[in-house]
Predict the structure.
Amino acid sequence: MPSAAMQREQDILALWDQAAGRPRRLRDDALFAAAGATPTASIGAGNAALLALRTRLFGAAWRLRAACPACRTDCEFTADSAALAAGLAPAASAAPPRIANGSGEVALRLPTLSDLEHLAAAPDSATATEWLLARCLGGMPSPAPDPETLARIEAELERCDPGAVVAFALDCPDCGHGWQAVIDIAPALWAEVQAAAERSLLEVDALAREYGWSEAEVLALPQARRAAYLQLSGAS
Ligand SMILES: [Zn+2]
């Protein structure tokens, strides 16, 4: 029976196998699938699932960075991915209302992960927004919504699925500027998976060269012993 740490390393490497070198959309799909998020999940529920996966693989302390928009200083901060995940999934009752449009009204539904997939092919963000709107309104309504109606639609989507956008209130330590740093969960998680997988591969490489052990043999070593052998071989 592998230890919890070994199991996590195996899971990280399996995820890396599925997603490394893939275009962003396929990589995101692999992450959402590994997190157990179905294509019909709302964006907030998808983000919550990714953060729960992140917490299981790396622990709750989540080190992040964002560039200050005023002075470009790279600001590091730490979030709690477990606590964050708990607050992201929309309430089951959060169904968007019908919205007045022209002389009639339109029914709105929350965007899902599968909607995001379809947007990946959009040539620019304006087209992507238009496509998303058409999908969530069941086709582009006639007349097309005016800016005021669009703003109401946007506000309702935000109210009903607040976890769709994850942002942190930051103050720049350098210039004091305060802003909301938006963190895109899937690429942030992928960066961690990639870094951890590459670390494992480097360790396997070093010990395989030094002792002639197979990949499976190196991965089966308890963490402390692997670290000790890496030190002995001068690789760390
Ligand atoms: Zn700054």
The pocket of zinc ion is lined by residues 68, 70-71, 73, 172, 174-175, 177 (CB under 6 Å). Strands lie at 61-67, 74-80, 99-101, 104-106, 166-171, 178-183. The radius of gyration is 22 Å. The mean pLDDT is 92.
